[in-house]
Each structure stands twice: as structure tokens, then as C-alpha cells.
Amino acid sequence: MFLISGFVSAQISFTAKVSKKQLGINERLRVDFTMNKDGDDFEPPNFENFTVVGGPSQSINNSWVNGVRSFSKSYSYFLAPKKRGTFVVGQASIEINGETYKTLPINITVTAAIDKPKNPNDPNYVASQTIHLVAEISNSNPYLNEAITVVYKLYVAQNTGIRNWRELDKPRYGDFWSQNLDVKEYKTKQGTYRGEDYLYVVLKKIVLYPQKTGKLNIEPLSLDVTVEVPSNRRDVFGRLFTNTVNRTVSAGNRTINVKPLPENGKPTDFSGAVGDFDFKLESNKQTLKATEALELKVIVSGKGNLKLFKLPKLVLPSALEVYEPEHSENVVTRTSGMRGTISDTYTVVPNYQGNYPIPNISFSYFDLKTKRYKTLTSERLVIDVNEGPLGASNSSSGSISENVITPNLNQFSSFKTTTEFEPIESKPFFNSTLFWLLLLCPFLLIPILMLLVKNQTLRALDVSGNKIRKTNRLARKYLSQAKKSLGDKEPFYNALERALHNYLKSKLRIETSDFNKEKIEEILKNKNVNSSTLEGFISLLTACELARYTPLSAVDMQNDLDKAAEVINALDKQLN
What is the pTM of this model? Predict the structure, then answer.
């Protein structure tokens, strides 16, 4: 018996098989968990790096051949990868004859999107002919550090619908400085794709500044799109039925050729600025006292790679005390690139009297319009310190040489060591207005609480009114649920129908068992409801009944929701 038991146990198998071990981000993976003995408590892996787009589906094969029984049972899943990389399909487990069996983990490699063979009889092929993702590049031959814009547009044929989309693989811009631009609203526009009329929507905008020269690759953006493809069948109203398929679209790889900046005429102080800029040096004071602080600001403004270069350093006479500059940026990134102002603010403190010349500083950049380098020079400033101690090296004219280093005897003299605070006058809290107000408030609240309790008691005893209010709340609840379910046909119309049910129960005080179109039409006519409102209400009920047999778009659902709000509003006015 022990030998037979061991032999039978050895024959039990529980394995995992995949359709392929390497696939593109735009492909699907099938995983089958197969056993040759029936078991219980099947536990699949979590598929953390995949999206389950189908399954689990179960299949059982039980046959007898020459008196020998053959049995197999499978659980199948269809998976879509979430990103590129090497991932593991974990272990699944099941209990067979009181023992737990587990499959072996399987490594799966997910690559970039690949071209898939097309089958004209496959609904996915029809979707592939009517939906396209395109990456439009503003300039495929830019200079180093010149802005280019990549706009991703989703083109859809006019007889095709889109329910939703999800990013599968985000492009990596390793050789670029990149900035995402927010697309606040997805607006549908008319356009052409390969000479044919299409509708398109802008999904994403990226501004790129190339940081290397030569041929650079822009990786593709991949999307998982739910597409509604029209079929050749029509319903009783003549409208086309649609097939819903999941389609993976990719913008494809794009290559740009980045030109280096010319070496001819490049200034020695060039720090990589490319664009169109203005440059200046500002001082908030030119006449001041010794130990009084002033601010010198080096400012570059205009359009270009403002965040990708350094401002020129300010060199001052050694007799001036200079602190580390404070860098600030006021830059906005648009589809044309960066635009704004960057600056370095230096805090300078003179300790002695004299005239302090601020040397000129220059800023160089490459002008994209003229394709040449330009150098801008600041105006020469002179700081006049007219009060304070005289330095040891001061001349009779009262000026200080730029090359003379004077000892700083009191380097913290510019900091204040005394305050100008004044005491705040305070009044006693006892016998103040706030004291008496807080004391009397509890006594004033007693009658208000008694009225609230009385009203709550009367409201609780009003059984009929409570029932009406409860039904009204349910109607509003289901109408809001219908609004949340826009785009999903069955939940939307189920919620809409429940809202209509509960609204009439509250207004007409009829039970759900009496709720039919003939009864409603008779009661509303007796209530003198006008014919247009009555027809609108009945048509809504008919739409809810036919919804499960009729393909409807999100626009049709929105129209029915708006119509329900109008009809309920009209009935409120006529039934009061």
C-alpha cells in the first residue's frame, strides 16, 4: 500500500506554461496552469508587473482510451505587460489529495514595441487601420541645447470610438533635458492622416533640449486603447453594432540629428547659453553709508536654455565685503521652449568711505537667428560710500584703488545688535466683553437645543414624510450613480432606471410591484401632466429596457442623463 501510494503521488503533476518567454510591450501573454488530477483552493500568482486582460478561464478534458482514464484541468490567463524589463511569473498553488503543489516560476522578458503581423479577418486588424498614434517633432535637425517639441497625437477614424487609454511604456529621454507640458483638456479636433479625414486629440507634449551631438533616438510612447469598431450588423433602429477590442498603439522610434555649435568665433567665456537673451547688472543703491548693505544683481532674460547654463561671476574690489549670491529663476516652459529670467543677487557691504568702481562683466550666447555668437557687456557702476571710517589706504581724493586690499576690522558691523520692539498693551480678561459672552452662551443655547430636539421628534413620528424623503434621497443617489457610470452601458442604465423608480414612488406613492408603463401613463394623465413631459418619461423607461440590446455611445448616455434631469424637474413643477 505504501508503494502504491508513493507511485500515485509521483504521477501527479501541476505545471505552468507560457505562450512565449519574450514579447514586446504591445503584445499579449497567455499563461496556462495545468494539472492531471482535480484539486481545490487554486491560488494564482499576483501578476504584479502585468495587467490581467482576460481570464481566468477554466477548461477540463476527461477521456477514456482503451480503458485508461485521462484527465487534465487548466486555468488560463491573458496578460498585458505594464513596462519593459525582465519579470517573473510567480508560483501558483493548488491542493490535491490533501497535499499542496506549486508551479515553478518563469522568467519573462518584455522589450520595446514590435511590429505585429496583421490578419484582415481579425477585429484588431480593423482597429489598427482606424487608430494611429503619431509623434510630431518640431525640428529634426536642431543645434546642441536648442529646444524641440514632441507632440503625441491620437488619430481616430470618424466611424470609430475610443472609450479610454492607458500608458504602457513611457519614453526615456536619457540624452535630453526634458519637461512635460500639462494637457489640461483633451479636445477633439478635425485633421488628416495620410490624406484621409480623421479626428485627433493631443495626449502629451514634451519639450526637449538635446545634451549630446549626433544622431539621438527618441523612444516610442505605447498606449493600451479600448476601441469601439463598427460592424456590418444593425439593430432594429438601424444603428450599427460595435465590437470592443483592446488595441496597443505605438508612436514608433524617431531619430533626430543634433548639430554641434560652431567653433569659429566661440568666446572664451561661453558657458553654453543658446537662444535670444538680454543681459544687465543692477544695483539697488549707488550712494550709501559704510557698513550699510547693498544688492548687486546679475540678470539674464529672454528665450532659450535658461536652466542649463551658469551666469557669469561678479568680480569686485577687495575692499568690499561680498557674500555668496542667491540664485533665483522665474522661468516658464512652453511648446516653444523656456522663457523668463534668471539672476544671481550678491549682498555687498562696504566698510570704509570711498568710491568703489564695479568692473564690467560680459555674457556670451549663441544666437539661433543669426547662427553666430553674441557678447553682451554690462554698464560700469560706481558705488559712492560717503559716510563712515576712513581706510588706511585711502588717498586724498577719497577713492579706493581696485587692487588695494584693506584690513576688515569689523566684518560684522553691518548687522544690527539691538531691537526696536515695543511692549504690547494687554487688558484683563475678567469682566471683558469676551468673558461675559462665553459665560452666557451656554444658557442661550438651551432653548435652541430644545427646539431642535422637538423638531427631530416630530420628524421621526412623520412616517409617511420620512418614507418620501428616503425615496427622494435614493433617487438622487441613483441619478448620481448613473452620472458616475457614464461610458459603461449596463451600470448606467440600471442606475437610471432605479432613480426613475424611486422618484415616482416618492411623488405618486405607488409600490414597485405596480410600476409599469401603462399604470404610470394612466396616473400621470390623471395628474394633468402635459403630453411632452409624459412622453419624455415613457421614452426614458423604453431606453432603459432596450439598453442591454442596443450599442450606445457615451454621447447617447449623456443625452439620456440630461433628459432625465429635465423630465424630473418638469414633473416636480407639475405634480406639486
Answer: 0.50
